[in-house]
Amino acid sequence: MSSAKSSLSWPSVSLTIDARKLLFSLSSFLAAAITLAIVFSASLPRPWWALLTVYVTAQPMSGAFRPKMLYRLAGIATGAIVTIAVVPNLQNAPELLVLCMAAWTGFCIYLAVLDRTPRAFLFQMAAFSSAVISFPYIENPADIFDTTAGRVAEMTVAILSVSMVHAVLQPWSATPVIRDRAKSFLRHARRWSVEVLSGDNGEQENAYRRALASDVTELGMIAIHLPFDQRAAPITQRRVIALQQQLANTIPLASAAANRLDLIEREHGILPELNGLLVRTMDWLGSAESRTAQVGALIDECERLARQAEDRGDWPSLLAASASIRLAQFLNAFASAQRLANRIGSPGRLKISDGHEQSFRLARDHGVAVLAGAATAAAIILYCAVWILLAWPSGSATAAFAALITCSFAAHDDPSPIIGRYLKATLKTFPLAAFYLFVVLPRVDGYEMLMITLAPALLWMGYIQADPRRSPEALPMFSCFIVAMGFLARFQADFSAFVNTGIAQLGGIVTTLAVTRLFRTASARWTLRRVMRANWTELALLADIRRPFRPGDWTARSVDRLGQIAQRIVAARPGDDLHAADSLADLRIGRNVIPVRKALSHVPHDLRHDLGLVLAGVADHYRGCTRLSKIVPADAALLVPIDRSIDGLLAQLLDEYCRQALRALVAMRCNLFPEAAAPVLTAGKTATLRMVQGGRA
């Protein structure tokens, strides 16, 4: 009987609450309470605007929040100054006023999309703060100064309240987020590297590559926030930048090693010694318990095998040497990244050997930024034209909401899916706002009871905002809930006003969605082609010996573009020629151009001439890709100077510069001409004979 009872036990239901998310929600709610108290006491005209600013400004990660707070305050001030300067002077020409405000908003969005750092929030806030302040008063700008002062005061109180509360409670620190992101990257890199090195890199390769490149770029964005996070942040920031450099190196190095191994296996078969080294490398990568101290022996063995193969001087040996040295470089970068990831947030200074370099430069595209700014300006002109021509009483609110949404999502290639989710979240929140406005708030008396009754809804939405997967739903929920209820100094349950406000919100969202589909749906593929062309253009400049040589800047921008291409390639049609453009191969070729350029001043004149022909051929190849906007096969004539340069380097005493150039030329030949026959190398036989004779002597 007892056994029967035990088998009939009720299923247990556990409700798990994340403490960090709850702390963030409580922090935001406390900031909202302080903001409303100040706004009500000062009798500011729009308490709802201040309350909405609290939740728009709040960020779960304190380090990410503070720089954005400073830039937002500067953006608000800039937008207010522009509004006061423009609106009164053009009050008699509303068409010209709309044109000027649209041009200003588009220019700010252009700068925001171009910048891609926390500074973008300054331009973004300047854009839509001037829009939401000016549009409701275009037809009657007499009170524009008082209105602007009220909006600035409300937003400033909100931002300072959030800043103060988050400074005290610090819901999340950036340091553990960076550590988790780095370890996530390393886990993905282990899995991807094992699959690539084993030759089993089919359908999942692009997904892994996209995740890895995105993580590298995201680490650089987080590193910018670190000086605002803690006193020891400069040291941590240097570690994160060094970590980012090492992580960026792992992707092309693993891919290059796999490329050489594929060629060796297809043409000559992998030698037992190299195969055993590869197996031990994959065992180390595949084990979750592997330590960085164990990788030193593998790196030494790779380098020893590479030097022995290079001394033999024949083509199969050079391929084996190339695979071995790329494997060693990959293991070194991966182990360095693992050590740096484990030391993020720990005391101590960064050593030069840890890989400290200058900040990770992001790629910028003026064409993409111009498109985003022009689309935003055109959309705002269209909103205002419909509103003015139809003489719609709520048109100003619709234009303001539409401008806010357009500015918020202007940086996306195709914002329409996000705006569609924004619309759904808004529709789901209207019943809650109606319940509070017509059922709950009429029974509330006083500020204290107001905050107690608002707590369940605001805490719930704040908890959603703290969840990275659901945070996009939070902004429309807050916007609908707060704006629909009004939160004026005196309670007003006006059903017609509630409906008009709701229609204005929905109208702004629907109009934005329609305009976005009209102007921006084709931009994702267009942007992808532009990013690829920019990558090819910079590769041509890197190989041009007449141009300045800045390899560090090129590497950073190329890895950043690799992430952009990987994220956007899904927008291309299955048969599109864009799929044939291998951005990772371009990255590998660019990295091989660098040691060739460095070796130019360390080789004899004839060999320098051949190396110059190689670099000129690479530059011409990528100029052709840029001109045709698609990848084209390299000219077979380029094989002649490449093979002659390899033969010439083998005839030299291989110092460090010549050895690196030899390895780069072998890799470049494999990347540009993977199907070409093996070269005929005469100097390699002479070098081998000299080595044998030297050994006998």
TrEMBL record:
<dbReference type="InterPro" id="IPR006726">
    <property type="entry name" value="PHBA_efflux_AaeB/fusaric-R"/>
</dbReference>
<feature type="transmembrane region" description="Helical">
    <location>
        <begin position="70"/>
        <end position="90"/>
    </location>
</feature>
<keyword id="KW-1003">Cell membrane</keyword>
<protein>
    <submittedName>
        <fullName>FUSC family protein</fullName>
    </submittedName>
</protein>
<keyword id="KW-0812">Transmembrane</keyword>
<keyword id="KW-1133">Transmembrane helix</keyword>
<feature type="transmembrane region" description="Helical">
    <location>
        <begin position="48"/>
        <end position="65"/>
    </location>
</feature>
<feature type="transmembrane region" description="Helical">
    <location>
        <begin position="425"/>
        <end position="441"/>
    </location>
</feature>
<feature type="transmembrane region" description="Helical">
    <location>
        <begin position="21"/>
        <end position="42"/>
    </location>
</feature>
<feature type="transmembrane region" description="Helical">
    <location>
        <begin position="96"/>
        <end position="113"/>
    </location>
</feature>
<feature type="transmembrane region" description="Helical">
    <location>
        <begin position="368"/>
        <end position="390"/>
    </location>
</feature>
<feature type="transmembrane region" description="Helical">
    <location>
        <begin position="497"/>
        <end position="519"/>
    </location>
</feature>
<keyword id="KW-0472">Membrane</keyword>
<keyword id="KW-0813">Transport</keyword>
<feature type="transmembrane region" description="Helical">
    <location>
        <begin position="475"/>
        <end position="491"/>
    </location>
</feature>
<dbReference type="Pfam" id="PF04632">
    <property type="entry name" value="FUSC"/>
</dbReference>
<feature type="transmembrane region" description="Helical">
    <location>
        <begin position="447"/>
        <end position="463"/>
    </location>
</feature>
